[in-house]
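re: ur question from earlier - yeah i can do the single chain one, its not a big deal. heres the input i used so u can compare w yours
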Amino acid sequence: MRNRFFLIILFIGMLQACSSPDAPQEALQFITPEKVTVGEDLMIELSGEIINSQANYYFFQVEDGHAFLADGVITPDRDGHFQIKYSIERPSNPYGYILFYSDLDQNGKFDIESDTEAALHRIDILFNDYSK
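and the output i got, formated as tokens:
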């Protein structure tokens, strides 16, 4: 009888732990290409998906390792899908990347000082005709 009582208490405890609001959230996941190529038109075109998103928007920043070439906002739809079509500045070398950030200070504006503390995701870029 004691064993049964102990098992019931243990089972109730496990159920409460699983339904607790403090239970860990699923990890945020970006599904995107690993690399994007940008042509001489200097236009980035990219689509992807964000899984387990808790935010309505995310910031992105395009860099070439020496300078910031563009920044903007993505707004995933209800299913987490997003698209970027964005013109960038001319890069200084053939390699760069896109970094995605959340709005850490929750003010709706991209702030390089506070919002770039931790990148959520990175996509490498190859600039095909960077020297023109």
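Helices lie at 2-19, 112-115. not sure if urs matches, ping me
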